[in-house]
Specification:
The structure is a homodimer of 266-residue chains. Chain A has 266 residues and is an alpha+beta fold. Chain A contains 4 helices and 15 strands. In chain A, a hairpin with a 4-residue loop joins β7 and β8.
Chain lengths: 266, 266
């Protein structure tokens, strides 16, 4: 078992609820793992975004209970369970973090620790809490804004290209596994540990690794459905998960990886 | 009964839960009133902020049930029940809205309709949804940032002064009752309908106007506690509520009105 934070992301072709994956993931927030210093989850519904954060353990939190039982349908979800390595256990230090850029909400969660990291922030985005993670997020937002100015890029492929330039300077400071979304797709970067699985038609049964719970997705899915789930460790024990390469950045759109590259390679 | 949105705010000397007031307020989201087009509530816990929004009615929403039953202790709370007058019933149009400025979250909710309102936004803050309200919020954030640049003002008294300058240009477009907070205090402005009550030691019993529910605050309070509740209509029927003057802006700090002025008076 890892002793750091855990990430969970979902990117889908059609609005999908994440209650099954979140149930297994939340077990790691205190029961099957050591990540009991708060948690959070963000759901995009088109441009709208719901962000739930809590400094209680994801196992005991009443808000986590709500999320497990209330099937919010979303195309992009980012969740995080925190083990405090930098920053006190305060609400303002709980991931994911949210900022607005180009009239869209952006959501970010990070796993890892950045040492001696003090990026040159110009004030357009300032951290509210004291984590290295929120500093990195503010720096990425600032960098994206600087590159495209007031006009949003046409698609996340262009954002992908800018991240390839911005990420190497950050990951020199330590582990930088992160998930980033603006509701149109999901960007995932790995320096040490991140996996994904793509579920598509015909769907089949999946069994959680962290608790004895199965779901037969073939009973509730349609041919146009497709779901990519990204996690620090595989959440199920009977599906084929793909491990990210070290340094790999992947853009997920409509439930599929659409762009892949390794950051910082000459 | 009004046919527009309803606002609820709370500003306290010590962290206080709002479950009692919210229970009465939520009744207006579909049962005792016509505000069934979504709702939202934001709780500050020091600098951290939890924002719950939902496009279901506040009467039936599972998230509203959670908020009614989960006593989150906060010094500043802003809630809103929406009757759509401008903008579709989408999640991104649900109040309150959140933005970051000077390393703090800012929360804004508005009651009223602004007609022909297209403020000159420079791109630093852009609306995610399509409401007149979020446009006004972005304009206020832009104006505050422009006035103080990168350095946060020393206190909300300085923000109060800038709002006195910015608000008259907005309220020319229509009703502009709003609540604004950054977690340090709460600013409330009224053009048509807003009331407040201050509860202090010794506390006594309060009875909700919208449902037969009472609470004896003297059983659970201490001498240092003090709570200001601000609402579109008085929430209780056995307390003395003070009505805002038309155009009045009030700053609440530690459960008390500390600054009052009328906007747009020469």
């Amino acid at each position: 078992m890892t002793i750091m934070c855990q990430l969970l992301g979902m990117n889908c072709a059609t609005p999908t609820d994440i209650t099954f994956s979140f149930s297994g993931f939340a077990e790691r927030g205190g029961r099957t793992d050591h990540h009991a210093d708060g948690w959070g989850i963000a759901f995009f519904e088109d441009k709208g975004c719901r962000l739930f954060i809590d400094h209680e353990s994801a196992v005991t939190s009443p808000i986590a209970q709500l999320v497990k039982n209330y099937p919010i349908k979303s195309r992009n979800v980012i969740a995080h369970i925190r083990k405090a390595t930098q920053g006190a256990v305060e609400l303002e230090n709980c991931h994911p973090f949210m900022r607005e850029l180009w009239g869209r909400h952006w959501i970010f969660a990070h796993n890892g620790t950045l040492k001696d990291y003090n990026p040159p922030l110009n004030g357009l985005y300032q951290p509210v809490g004291t984590t290295d993670s929120e500093q990195a997020f503010c720096f990425l937002m600032q960098g994206l804004r600087a590159r495209f100015d007031r006009q949003a890029p046409a698609d996340l492929g262009q954002v992908f290209e800018v991240l390839l330039e911005l990420v190497p300077g950050i990951k020199r400071h330590g582990e930088f596994n992160f998930l980033l979304s603006n509701g149109q797709g999901l960007l995932a970067h790995c320096t040490s540990k991140l996996w994904y699985v793509v579920r598509g038609w015909p769907f089949r049964e999946a069994h959680l690794a962290d608790m004895d719970m199965s779901i037969d997705f073939s009973q509730s899915t349609m041919p146009q459905d497709r779901v990519a789930v990204i996690a620090t460790q595989p959440l199920t024990d009977n599906e084929e998960w793909t491990q990210f390469e070290s340094g790999e950045l992947i853009l997920f759109e409509k439930g599929l990886p659409t762009r892949k590259a390794v950051t910082g390679r000459a």
